[in-house]
Structure formats: C-alpha cells, structure tokens
Design goal:
mainly alpha, about 130 residues, about 85% helix, elongated, 5 helices
C-alpha cells in the first residue's frame, strides 16, 4: 500500500509540475485556452507557478498536505474551466488529479493525526 501511495504522490507531482510548466513557458494551447476566459499572461504565469509549487511541495512530508491542496486547487480551477468550455469528456478525465490529490490530503491528515495521538499519549506517561 505504501508503494501505491508513493506512486500517487509522484504522479500527482509530475502532473502538477508539467501543467505548471506549460503555463509558465506559455504553451500556445494553454495561452489560448486561458486567455479566452480573460486571464492575462501574468495571471497565467502565476497560475503556472502555483501549480509548480504544489508539485514541488508534494515531495517533503512536512509540506505534502499543503502541496496537495495547492495542486488540487489548481486542477480544480482548470477542470471547472474545461467544463465551462463544454468539453465534458476531458472534464471528467480532469477530475482524476483532483481525486489523487484528495487521497494524498487524506493520507497526510491521517498521518498527522496519528502522530499527534502518539505524542499526546507519550506525554501523559511522562508526568
């Protein structure tokens, strides 16, 4: 199960970084798509940087939850725009990275919760 979790994190990080790089490097299709919704070049680059940051922050355990939240948020915005455009098939496929981010967020929260329970029970015996 741990290997699957690591693979999910790696896949999500790579997807987030790749999507962000396409925006930062101003890929023509990305630019055309996002500019059709009124986003300026600067906003598109900032959006891309947020996606890249989310992908990078997925690597360390300490920042994994924040990275997953950033990635999920960015993928969520993109997915909404895809649905608004009327591309239901691709929109449905675009939900997958959001679901993967949800799994990472859940696991990170569970790990944090378990650590706090272990710390609390360990302190009680020290008195």
């Amino acid at each position: 199960m741990k290997i699957i979790h690591i693979l999910i994190i790696v896949a999500l990080a790579l997807l987030s970084i790749a999507a962000g790089l396409a925006k930062v490097m101003q890929a023509p299709q990305e630019m055309e798509f996002l500019q059709s919704f009124g986003l300026s070049k600067i906003l598109i680059i900032v959006f891309g940087l947020i996606q890249i940051a989310g992908g990078v922050l997925l690597a360390p355990k300490k920042t994994r939850m924040f990275g997953a939240i950033l990635a999920a948020s960015a993928f969520g915005v993109s997915t909404v725009l895809i649905f608004v455009r009327g591309n239901v098939a691709f929109g449905m496929f675009s939900i997958l990275p959001i679901a993967l981010a949800g799994v990472v967020i859940y696991q990170a929260a569970r790990t944090t919760h378990n650590k706090s329970l272990n710390t609390d029970s360990g302190d009680a015996g020290a008195d």
